[in-house]
Amino acid sequence: MPQKSENKNDESNQYISWDDERYSINNEEIDSQHKKLIDICNSLYDSHQRGDTIDGIRNALLAIVEYARTHFKDEEGLMSEIGFPGLNRQKKSHREFLDRITGFLQELRRGHQISALRLLAFLKNWIEDHIENEDKLIGSFLKAKKAEV
């Protein structure tokens, strides 16, 4: 049975639900960090559902940037340590993600309205696509390396 995110909300109310088969790379640390990113995204969704103000969006974006930087550093460190051939592509993808989130924050600082739905759609698409199509390759690489030993 797939393990779900540790988000305290009812699973049916989650914007993104963790599914081991879909998202796990079979590395406990990285999987835990991915779950945390999903939980932050779900918190933003909850905030939007409650009708929270722009401050709620700003705080969620800041939390995402802060946590993503830590996660990306750890993930890139793992990739470097195991000699993962897609490290440079991953670094580029991580930079682009942070640039996009920083762009949302700059829009807010300039007093522009940003659509919470646009932001949520970007986060959901990026998280799902990145984990499934990029990070899962790390898991496959780790599995192959273990089989060599």
How would you portray this structure in words?
The chain contains 5 helices and no strands. The chain is an all-alpha fold. α2 packs antiparallel against α3 (54-82), α2 (28-49) packs antiparallel against α5 and α4 (87-109) runs antiparallel to α5 (116-148). The protein is elongated, with a radius of gyration of 16 Å.
Q: Helix and strand layout, with pairings?
A:
Blueprint: H1 20-23, H2 28-49, H3 54-82, H4 87-109, H5 116-148
Largest sheet: none
- Could you name the CATH topology? Four Helix Bundle (Hemerythrin (Met), subunit A)
CA-based shape:
elongated
The domain count comes to: 1
| Class of secondary structure makeup | mainly alpha
Rg from C-alpha positions? 16 Å
What's the CATH first level?
Mainly Alpha
Offer a concise description of the structure:
The chain is mainly α and 149 residues long. It has helices at residues 20-23, 28-49, 54-82, 87-109, 116-148. The chain contains 5 helices and no strands.
Summary keywords:
149 residues; mainly alpha; Four Helix Bundle (Hemerythrin (Met), subunit A); 74% helix; 0% strand; elongated; disordered N terminus
